[in-house]
# Entry
Amino acid sequence: MSDAWFETVAEAQRRAKKRLPKSVYGALVAGSERGLTLRDNVEAFGELGFAPHVAGLSNRRELTTTVLGQPLSMPVLISPTGVQAVHPEAEVAVARAAAARGTAMSLSSFASKSVEEVVAANPKTFFQMYWVGTREVLVQRMDRARAAGAVGLIMTLDWSFSMGRDWGSPVIPERMDLRAMLRFAPEAVTRPKWLWEFAKTRHVPDLTAPNLTPPGGAPPTFFGAYGEWMQTPLPTWEDVAWLRERWGGPFLLKGVTRVDDAKRAADAGVTAISVSNHGGNNLDGTPAPIRVLPSIADAVGGQVEVLLDGGVRRGSDVVKALALGARAVLIGRASLWGLAANGQAGVENVFDILRSGIDSALLGLGHQSVHDLTPADVVIPPGFTRTLGA
Ligand SMILES: Cc1cc2nc3c(=O)[nH]c(=O)nc-3n(C[C@H](O)[C@H](O)[C@H](O)COP(=O)(O)O)c2cc1C
# Structure
């Protein structure tokens, strides 16, 4: 359907807002407290400019790269997001879209589809875990992902159980029983396209986390799993090194914003880090990842793959991140807006927007390849960068 095509991620977000029930849309906007970090993640990219050339430009541009040993058609991959009820095909649709565009998928352990289904949709799948449960339980979940064919492990550590948003949090039921359905019916009936997608499958969103199912048991509810997480003692750097060792394959530590933490992660033997503040859903007031990226890339860029996630909405954002030292970026909300707007095709649409934006910026900057970008391509205003923990 040609009229389903959108030209920017902002348009995908507008359509997602129209299409999703208010609570589901609110859960994707997320953010915390004042929303300082949520805004800074996006707006900081807008403070950076470009220094383009006008002649002698390259007729062909190369966008390919590798992340955690996987060849990617472009320096953009899917960030893990534990969300439910956006679309019936959920993470499987996202994984297929990433595969169709030649790039990788990251699957949250709080996601609504199993790692087996998602790896079948995209063999370049990384499985993401939080530090939830005992070491034994962590190993069980990790071994299941490995057996399913996940080609990398992501450990996300930057979660501080922040509660409350000044603009209000959506009410999300523990499970979709009759009572919850009646409560949410008024929201859902005003969103006929969304309702129809689920009606066709004859299933309501079940709000469980199938990748956290104990052996021989039933999948926990999203909130049940969250409760287990809140009770788990917090990990040390030795725990991180242990998990990395136990996994044995490519390992990404997600959520680093400080130079000292980046160095500790490198010492713990990780393959990669993602400079990230969890998309501003966490400790509000943490600077945008793009502000702290240069100091971290300087410190550990020679030892580990430095990635970034947070606030990426256009190809030029990707190019700015690469110019300041990232190898690739992960996208969270951009892919969720695409999924909500038009399912798998909507996520492919988002990748196409980013690809053409990267290509256009490379052209303007006079580069042949994403690997040729340097800080000299970017206009950095005074006071833009932040260096934490150096
Ligand atoms: C609704 C939502 C759910 C998320 N769930 C997870 C998760 O389960 N695991 C994780 O590592 N990060 C999670 N994140 C963070 C994303 O992986 C990523 O860091 C963030 O969305 C990047 O910012 P962006 O949305 O501006 O691209 C979530 C983010 C959102 C918006």
